[in-house]
Amino acid sequence: MAQDSGTRTLISQAQLERGRGRVIYWTLLVVVVVAFTLVFIGPLYWMVTGALKSGQEIAQTPPSLFPKDPQPQNYVDAWHNLDLAKLLFNTFYYATGAVLFQLVLDTAAAYSLSKLRPIFGNAILGLMLATLMIPAMVLIVPQYVTVIDLPILHVNLLDSPFAIWLPLVANAFNIFLLKRFFDSIPEDLMAAAFVDGATPLRTLWSIILPMSRPILGVVSIFAVTAVWKDFLWPKLVMPSPETRTVSVGIYAFSGGTPMNVVIAASVIAAIPTVVIFLIFQRNIMSGLTTGSLKG
Amino acid sequence: MAITTVPGTTRPPGRREPYPSTRRRAGLGRKVRDNLTGHTFLIGAVVCFAVFSWYPMVRGIVMSFQRTRRGETTWVGWDNYTRIIDDPSFWTAWKNTFYFTVLALVLGYLVPFFVAILLNEFRHARAYLRILVYLPVMLPPASALFLFKFYAYDPSEAGLFNAVLAALHLPTSEWMQSPGMTMPAMVLASTWMNMGSAVLIYLAALQNIPGELYEAAELDGAGIWRRILHVTVPQTRLILALLAMLQIVATMQLFIEPLILANGAGTGDSATSVAYLIYQHGFFQNDLNGAAALGVIMLVVLAGFSAVYVRLTAKQD
Question: Which of A50, A271, B101, B209 is most buried, judged by most C-beta within 10 A?
Fold first, then answer.
């Protein structure tokens, strides 16, 4: 933060505080704050209030700024007709499982790669990081074929939550984030634990994990939002109406449902991620920048 | 958290073992055991990578040279590729995808950079502005796109955009119903949804620029534009190059925007993207092998971009 650390940016502090600079600065600030509020909150306002309008009012020109005759019934209809309770529960269930699987398996892997460093560890890390270069769309067909008939086991994972949970464990970005964090934990600490007779598992559980709460939080939040935002993969592997996620469910209903009801459902579907964001925005933003920046 | 017991990690009491990384003159047995422990921690993630990432990569390439009909798989050489390329939609899809990528580079790449530069100058309302910019990133894309589809891109003057344009006495647009506006409209929606992460990454990069550089440039009489051009851009060029690459890879996979905004192909095939074609072939035309071939083509094209990126960034260092 510029004013915190006292470093100067493009324009010097002195210039912004004096005469003309000051006027321009405050004008620009007000303009930007208003414009950004309109651009980024405006559509959300439009969405929430638009879903309250009647079908007739939506089609009216020019559109009304406030719903004249609010129809909360649209939200009720969305909730019942699309069975949103079921859809939200499914999505929540997949998100929770994804967090657990990623925390356990990716943390264990990153710990091993960072601290235990077994033979071929670097080669494995390299292969994992290489998957970051492969676009998701390229893998979608062979991944689907794999999931409907798992190699060796010959199990079909369609409509099973494992079809969402397990592929998400193969997340090289998480491994990279966690490993970088573990790398920064001093080796002496590990050695001390080891001299005291702690097993690697005990060291991970009692020393590493308690120190890693911030990064574990970031990984968990990203896991939840990834599941909540994902569309094509859950659409393919969760074909039954009973197992759909909320985004896929809304899409499936969008054809034959009045559009204000679809929008009402979209608003409800967006509430959890927006709330998560408003609560954890600091962790999310710091996680985003540390992970991508100092590679 | 359920961590299963790890075999080979229990040691007889009283025996003090050095930490693996500090081990010296360790016996062969212990070395083997330490490695085994390490791999036990790795195995869960490695299996997931193997089954859901590494194996599908190979399988995709193999599949693209095979054809499965009524449960029988045969090798067909380049047949899938020729069939895919002969599909009239193939070239349209590539043309659309490139067009989207280029438009998204102009809008979705430059805008976040200048927004970040602007936000970095403000001493007030910083947190608020950041939250605003990042908020759309947190919306499920399907929700945001239905908003655009029904309320913003409504072709009559009841739509949000047309209402604003009409109020300003500007010509209104048919948006998704006019082939010429389909792509710009999709880029606009996509940029609104996604620019938050780029802005935050740029902001972090901007904060790492030493202030003395700006001071020196200012003493040399460089104006704001010249300071951006000669200090900001060179200082952030690695991040700029990296994000350009990531954005190209992301936009080339354009899928959900055409699916929701344009019901897939759009007016006069104006929205068909390569990723949508993969989806069509694989899951509607029962041609998983053709879809795999198209995936391989996409991988090759993107690998080409990556190679260019590596060449360009390597030269600068």
Answer: A50
Characterize the bridge pairing of strands B72-75 and B66-69.
antiparallel
Domain end call among A74, A108, A123: A74
Q: What angle do CA A29, A30, A31 make, to 5 degrees?
A: 90
Among A122-126, B4-8, B24-28, the range with the most confident prediction by mean pLDDT is: A122-126
Q: Compute the count of residue pairs across chains A and B with CB atoms less than 8 Å apart.
A: 350
For CA atoms B31, B37, B40, B46, give the dihedral sign. negative
User: How many domains in chain B?
Assistant: 2
Q: Which of residues 67-86 of A touch B (CB under 8 A)?
A: none
Is residue B95 located within the same domain as residue B152?
A: yes
ipTM: 0.86
Other CB atoms within a 10 A radius of the CB of residue B232 amount to 25
Closest partner residue to B255 (CB to CB) among A115, A137, A225 is A137
| Residues A224/A279, Cβ–Cβ less than 8 Å | no
Range of the domain at A61: 2-74
Which structural domain, as residue segments, surrounds residue B186?
Answer: 82-316
Q: How far is B21 from chain A (nearest CA, A)?
A: 7
Flag if A131 and B252 touch (Cβ within 8 Å).
Answer: no
Q: At what angle do helices A213-229 and A84-101 cross, to 10 degrees?
A: 140
State which of B9, B36, B63 marks the end of a domain.
B63
CB-nearest to B16 from A197, A259, A289 is: A197
Per the domain annotation, does B15 fall within a domain?
A: no
Query: What total of structural domains would you count in chain A?
Result: 2
Residue with tokens 């929606």: B189
Give the pLDDT score at B157: 76
- What Rg value do the Cα atoms of chain A yield, rounded? 24
Q: How far is CA B50 from CA A80, A128, A220, B59, B67, in A?
A: 41, 9, 23, 12, 24
What is d(CA A65, CA A48) in angstroms, rounded to the nearest whole number?
12
Tell me whether residues B279 and A140 touch, CB distance under 8 A.
yes
What are the residues facing B69 on neighbouring strands?
B72
Of the candidates B16, B120, B151, the beta carbon closest to that of A2 is on B120
Q: Where residue B63 falls among pLDDT bands split at 50, 70, 90? A: very high
Size of chain A, expressed as the number of residues it contains: 295
Q: At A221, which CATH number?
A: 1.10.3720.10
Q: Does A210 touch chain B (CB under 8 A)?
A: no
